[in-house]
Amino acid sequence: MSAQNICPRFEKATELLGKRWVALIVYDLMSGPRRFGEIDADLANLSGKMLAERLKELETEGIVKRDVYPETPVRIEYSLTEKGKALEPILGEITKWSSEWIELN
C-alpha cells in the first residue's frame, strides 16, 4: 500500500495513538474511572505536566471525559467515553501481539 492510498482518518488515528503515553493512558483508564494521582502513580515514568497535556488532548478528541465533583476538596476523575472504550479491542490485540513477539532485555 502506498502512502497516497492511506486513508486520512487512519493516518490521524495512528498519529494520535502513536503519541508517547497516549495508548498507556487509555489502557490504564480501561479499568474504570481514575483520579489524576492514580494515573500518575501507575505511569511512574511520566511527568505530571505531560500527563496533564495528554489528558487534555484526549479530552479534546472525545476519548477521555473529565468529571468534576463539587466536594471538599474537589474530586476530579477521568474516564473513557464510548469512543475511548471502542479502543479496547485494538489495545487488547496489541497486548496479545506484544506478549508473543516482543522480548524484554
UniProtKB/TrEMBL annotation:
<keyword id="KW-0805">Transcription regulation</keyword>
<protein>
    <submittedName>
        <fullName>MarR family transcriptional regulator</fullName>
    </submittedName>
</protein>
<feature type="domain" description="HTH hxlR-type">
    <location>
        <begin position="7"/>
        <end position="105"/>
    </location>
</feature>
<keyword id="KW-0804">Transcription</keyword>
<keyword id="KW-0238">DNA-binding</keyword>
<dbReference type="GO" id="GO:0003677">
    <property type="term" value="F:DNA binding"/>
</dbReference>
<dbReference type="InterPro" id="IPR036388">
    <property type="entry name" value="WH-like_DNA-bd_sf"/>
</dbReference>
<dbReference type="Pfam" id="PF01638">
    <property type="entry name" value="HxlR"/>
</dbReference>
<dbReference type="InterPro" id="IPR002577">
    <property type="entry name" value="HTH_HxlR"/>
</dbReference>
<dbReference type="InterPro" id="IPR036390">
    <property type="entry name" value="WH_DNA-bd_sf"/>
</dbReference>
